[in-house]
Design a protein that fits this description.
It contains ten helices and no strands. It is mainly α. The chain starts with a helix and ends with a helix.
């Protein structure tokens, strides 16, 4: 019963956040929409920041573990498939956009999304490390820029513009991203050659 109430409050909280934004979110309205009393909500969370901080670290932001596919492009496709699963959720899209606007005002929210950010960075690091081990990328690869390439285009398509991303789009994105990241190898080699002349 307790878990049913918590689940109802969690669902109502994210629905309300997606509908009105964090700034206008009312915990009283969340409790009402969940069919629970305010006391039930406040026994679990003392404020909407506390509720957001707790729930963001637990729900809907988990990326799958990535298998070693044997190539950078295929690893990128597996990563993008996992990321798409998270980002194309209607509520996550709306909450994510609003969250980015709110974190400057509520530092606790920034801390709350760290588990997702750290999970994403871990997956990115895994993809890059495997590519280096296979000789597809140089040890000197700029990991931060590579991570930007791996995430930004899909995030822009799904969250910012509200567009769609089917399997074909992800395959194209993986191929183009792998080519862009791999270009660093040629740039690095050319730079070393210039330095020895």
């Amino acid at each position: 019963m307790q878990s049913d109430v918590t689940d109802a409050l969690t669902s109502a909280f994210f629905e309300e956040w997606a509908r009105v934004g964090f700034a206008a979110l009312s915990l009283e309205r969340v409790a009402k929409n969940a069919g629970a009393g305010k006391a039930a909500l406040y026994r679990r969370w003392s404020s909407k920041v506390a509720m957001a901080s707790d729930l963001l670290s637990k729900v809907g932001l988990t990326l799958f573990e990535l298998p070693d596919t044997g190539s950078l492009e295929a690893d990128l496709l597996a990563f993008l498939l996992s990321l798409r699963r998270v980002l194309r959720h209607r509520i996550i899209q709306r909450v994510t956009l609003d969250l980015l606007a709110e974190i400057a005002r509520e530092p606790a929210l920034e801390r709350a999304i760290r588990p997702f950010q750290e999970a994403r960075r871990k997956r990115v690091k895994t993809v890059i490390d495997r590519a280096i081990a296979r000789g597809e990328l140089p040890m000197t690869i700029d990991r931060e820029t590579a991570a930007d390439f791996m995430v930004s285009a899909l995030y822009w398509r799904l969250v910012v513009t509200g567009g769609r991303s089917d399997r074909r789009h992800l395959e194209t994105l993986a191929r183009m991203t792998a080519a862009a990241i791999s270009a660093a190898r040629a740039d690095d080699r050319d730079r070393r050659l210039d330095e020895t002349r």
